[in-house]
Amino acid sequence: xxxxxxxxxxxxxxxxxxxxxxxxxxxxxxxxxxxxxxxxxxxxxxxxxxxxxxxxxxxxxxxxxxxxxxxxxxxxxxxxxxxxxxxxxxxxxxxxxxxxxxxxxxxxxxxxxxxxxxxxxxxxxxxxxxxxxxxxxxxxxxxxxxxxxxxxxxxxxxxxxxxxxxxxxxxxxxxxxxxxxxxxxxxxxxxxxxxxxxxxxxxxxxxxxxxxxxxxxxxxxxxxxxxxxxxxxxxxxxxxxxxxxxxxxxxxxxxxxxxxxxxxxxxxxxxxxxxxxxxxxxxxxxxxxxxxxxx
Length: 295
Prior knowledge:
By secondary structure, the protein is an alpha+beta fold.
């Protein structure tokens, strides 16, 4: 949404991203006298994680707006990089340096400053943080050592996997055969040469047959089932919409069509032997031509 997050808003979003939502609901009081209600649990957890401090031992300022500098510091600390800050330059330079090197600032719409961060840029910052390798302790104490093992919030904390593939079947048909289908409420996705079945969850993935997608999924507890949490089209700019009534001719590697109100023919080219879905069923080019004749 439009607007700018408060310190309480930002901390709450970070704790939720880290999967500590339930812990926050049961947390001990934060000790800040200006914090109350639900916010106190989230701030208490964030304080215990070492990602935020109060202005004093009793004052947090939950309704103060978060600046870009402060938001970057909180997220970098959430990822475990606090021990590495002094070397590149402290606050805010050190945090910005680490954020830049880890691509945390990719897609941020405004310049990095001490101005309040927008809700949109907070969302971008937290999204980018999901796949950043965390800095984790090898040993503890004054001479503690740290390492990067490739663990991320997405996979290691939330147990969510990101993948890219093609939706090859839904409960109606598949791109290989009109009579081959996935179970109700599932789709088949081909990723890295392997096909697997996924529950669509609350997504509209069954409508994405034939599309290449980037998707996020998890394994359901005590089962072998995978559930898709969300997805986005890998190449949305490569999708074209043509009304069937506008199609002039279908060839092995292209379609010619006329747009309403235009007198010139247009052509859409594609890979020879492309699979087609007609009226919800997979068909060959020959079958498609026959169906067109029967309209």
